[in-house]
Amino acid sequence: MRTILTGGTVLQDGVFRPMTLTISEGRIVSCSPDAPTADARVIDLRGCYIVPGFVDVHVHLREPGFSYKESIATGTAAAAAGGYTQVLSMPNLNPAPDSLERLRIQLARIERDAKIRVLPYGTITREEKGEAVADFDAMAPYVAGFSDDGRGVQSEAVMREAMRRAKALDKPIAAHCEDNALLRGGCIHDGVWAREHGFPGICSESEWRQLERDLRLVEETGCRYHACHISTKESVGLLRDAKRRGLPVTCETGPHYLTLCDEDLQDEGRFKMNPPLRSRADRDALLAGLLDGTIDCVATDHAPHTAEEKARGLRESAMGIVGLETAFPVLYTRLVETGRVPLETLLDRLTVRPRRIFGLPGGQIAEGADADLTVLDLHAPHTVDPARFRSKGRATPFAGERVSAAVKMTFCKGELVYEADGHDLDQPAAADR
């Protein structure tokens, strides 16, 4: 049966237009002012916006190996609730996907349980130990690229070899930039807040110094290179310069780095992530990079942990927060409504550029295109309540925050994979009761 989406405002070729969409067999078969409704399911979306499905290029689904934190089923349900129709899953798993044999374990579970499109990364090094390059040749047809996310590759020689091999396969290296020698036991950003409250700090140089090395290797090898979750003003500057010089580099940052800084910290695990929340100056530099095109993607780095692992304060809690279900509402409320970022720019970084970088399908609303669509309600005030998350993870710095927009529906391959209801949006959050 056909599905007709009527009454909505559609983002097509960067322009919003009133339009009726007809979906059949996983594809958009008609984009027109109107459509016949006989033998069709009609969904009235008056007052809503229909955009290409979001893509998150940095998500931890935790399976295989850590399904007590998250599973492919719960993680992709959370992604669908956040408006995502495709995610790229990180490889810090057990077993780590460093060979085709190990990767197939993950691929089988994705095929069985995923509610949206999932494309995994293979590791850069065997078991993510940073010592020997993984089996790129065998994995290349099945992965988005190669990453040791969670661990920076410390050896320059190993990273150089990895880049040469990735270049030969035309696959990107997606790098977690972190120089372990500069960490010095820190748990939050090495700034005024850390010093005033007696916490050991993580210096900005631990990120940008390794990024600087990697960019030099990119210039040497010609490898496509994607910098994960950048957080410092120095990283923005390095990447801006690299792009000006024509290097094949792209990057991402997270919603939390664009909207928070270390002045917002509380001694709770829900504020602990890696890299940490940086200074106000760093946050402002990231926003400038988003606006001028230096930053290509907004990616959540969705990293769920158990409640116990996140209940140990800033010093002892596990690194990582969840973000799939809060990203758009928070970004819209804090950046678009305040006039800091145009809606079109935000949507470009959530839909168009991620697909372009990783060669993913979709991204256009046109006849014949895949029906991967996100329906947005920009007038849906609600309070972020982690108890309602589909994710097993609950740790978010945005808990209790009042937001003004929501994802209303998500379609993946033409199937309705998420629909908001009163439980999601209308009831007061626990903090309000």
Strand and helix layout:
Blueprint (H helix, E strand, L loop, with lengths): L1 E5 L2 E4 L2 E4 L1 E5 L2 E6 L7 E5 L4 E4 L1 E6 L12 H10 L2 E6 L10 H14 L3 E4 L15 H4 L16 H14 L3 E3 L12 E2 L2 H6 L3 E2 L2 H17 L3 E3 L5 H12 L4 E5 L1 H5 L20 H13 L4 E2 L14 H4 L10 H10 L6 H16 L14 E5 L4 E2 L18 E2 L2 E7 L2 E5 L2 H4 L8
Parallel strand pairs: 1-6, 2-7, 8-9, 9-10, 11-14, 12-13, 14-15, 15-16
Antiparallel strand pairs: 1-4, 2-3, 4-5, 7-17, 17-20, 18-19, 20-21
Helix pairs in contact: 4-6, 6-7, 7-9
Account of the protein in words:
The protein has 433 residues and is an alpha/beta fold. Helix content is 30%, strand content 20%. It has 13 helices and 21 strands. Strands 3-2-7-17-20-21 form a 6-stranded mixed β-sheet, covered by helices on one side. It has a 4-stranded mixed β-sheet with strand order 5-4-1-6, with no helix packed on it. The termini are far apart. Residues 427-433 have low confidence and may be disordered.
Work out the helicity level: 25-40%
Taking the alpha carbons of the first and last residues, their distance comes to 43 Å
- Mean pLDDT, to the nearest integer, reads 95
SS-based class: alpha/beta
Count the DSSP helices. Answer: 13
Low-pLDDT stretches: 427-433
Radius of gyration, in angstroms, nearest whole number:
21 Å
